[in-house]
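User: Sequence in, structure out. Go.
Assistant: Echoing your sequence, followed by the structure tokens.
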Amino acid sequence: MSGTTDADVLLRVRQVEQFYDRRIRILGPVDLDVRDGEFLSLVGPSGCGKSTLLRIVAGLLEPTAGRIDVGGVALAGVNRQAAMVFQSFALFPWMSVVENVALGLEARGMAPLERLKRAEKYIDLVGLSGYERAFPKELSRGMKQLVGLARALALEPELLCMDEPFSALDVLTARAMRDLVLDLWKSPEVKTKSILLVTHSIEEAVALSDRVVVLRANPGRIAEVVDLADLPRPRRPGAAAVSEVVDRMYGLLA
């Protein structure tokens, strides 16, 4: 975090702790800056608090101690500058694709025609044009996750939070989804430029991220923040430079 100015920081995590039943510390204390425009990943073993920290950042969970600052202001309640993509798809089965994508826009009071136009734009960007009127039961698992991605991006949040979004997908679909997320992150048509990803896969984190936060468990704390800004993309598995970084991260968790 050294050398990072306030202008570069989208969100600050300061001395955040989370306890279970007020006695068992499951996370923290954690200090972390999420920089404007970066792809940041959280990795670590089960129980290290990755998803807990993500939910705290999104304002879906209140920390036991510490604070989240968004734009220099302490977060209170849901982070309206963030949107979430869940592992479990979380689609409403009685709604069509376009209705699912537009739902958050309706909740924010956007006019019907405007939210339809916005929803259709992001449905097209994730590659689901032609499926606007389909229902979740008619979609594959990968397509359902694309709907979840479009729904989050349609809100045009400053920060996209992703909680193991590829773990329920087969290997080929997950790879295609990772490539798509990178393309969307770089696209001038997508307003969101900062991504916070939770993943169990060190290889996935290295393939995608500018920085990777490696967490240890019991309680969850930051072991190291690994800067990958100088590692050229695309980062294909088996490449010497990629394998070296992956091995180093496994070493941090060993």
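User: And one key feature?
Assistant: The radius of gyration is 18 Å.
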